[in-house]
Amino acid sequence: MRGVVFGLIAYGSLLWESAWGWLFRDVRAFFAAPELGLLVVVYLGLCGRGSPIALTATALAVGYLRDLLVGSPRGVEALAFALCALAARLLHGRVFLDRWGQLAIVGALFATLHAFLLMLLAPGDSSMRMLVPLVLSALCFAPIVFVFLRRVDDRIAPEQRSLHLERDVGARWR
Amino acid sequence: MLSRRAREIVVVAALLALPILFLRANLKSPTDLNFFDRFLVRVSAPLQSLCGGIARSVGGAFGRYVHLVGVEAQREKLVEDNARLRAELAEAKHTAEREAQLERLLGLKTHEKVPSVTARVIGAETSPFFRVMRLRVDRGEGEVKPGMPVVSADGVVGRIQRVAGSFSDVLLAVDPKCAIDVVVPRTGARGILHGVASDNKYRARIEYLSKKDEVAVGDEVVTSGIGGPFPRDLPIGKIVSVGKSEVGLYQEAELEPAVDYGRLENVLVLLALPPESIAAQPAVKK
Question: Structure pTM?
Fold first, then answer.
């Protein structure tokens, strides 16, 4: 049930990413479309629930869908998403995530990691300036997306902590 | 017997190998989509179109409200521009007639009209790493092929990258992977246009411009019609900066595209294949 719900959320997020350009066309020069699909798989990794195999498979599926929707070479986003999800899984329980600022920083870090992976996997003419709008966008949207997903998680699987953080026991960042 | 942890590591590594295989297959034939990919694109594209439609309406309503500010001053400027453009149009018509007469006299072959199909933009480009837009072709499904040029009323948009039924992905002219042979009509300077990897602004640069050729800020740039599917004289944009280095044979110029990719709604796909694709097609027996 949880997998289906998060899969649908990720799919819907990817569809909305392509609509972003029309929604805020006047500010799009400074503010990239938020990578909502990436934030969903990063959230799943940070939660630390389920097996790494299921996490990798989910991230690969979401990434492959993004490959098809964005028009990138097939496999690039899939691999980048899977590596980001595994990196998030490694961070599970090792970072503080009890404030919005911390969530924003984690989101921005993963946006940067994702951008570097894309530069590595699809080498071409790339520039560090490309990072600025992506990081800005992640700083703004990551806390909103993580809190939303946490609430969804609480609703569909209330018996377990959806984002278990060892140093964060008792913290309420909702 | 492997421990659970070791088994997980092995399976995760095997899963990570999958996208590498996809990537390898994609490098071999970047334009081909398999049955599964085509199915996913066909299912997702209408939903993408729906989301785009909603966003376009909301964004358009907001934009219309914001753009009302300063509309009076803009109107006055447009009236002035209109008067000037009418005069220029009359002069251009006269010149075109004279040019056509001269071409007839010299027996030159006039421009061939390229057949085209209209398409609607249903997915805006989202990633600064991949400047790709999704189109839905209104009619003529099956006629659109990878490599065909896409243009709008303002100028060159890009070229078709992948096709799935009536949906196609367009690699924009501002993508670093796109290369178009261009010319500066004022001086005849020729170069190759490439997109610039930058923040979300659309920029391109002309490379291999000979240092001997004079180019200046404000010069218009058009397609040369050489070595690709683009017909000649399609507007590309205006030069915004010129970079000359002490060493080397070439100079570079940065260009602002004539097309506002963020506001594109309808485009034309020219049903013309690049010369290398035509050469690669099997010959038809007479």
Answer: 0.79
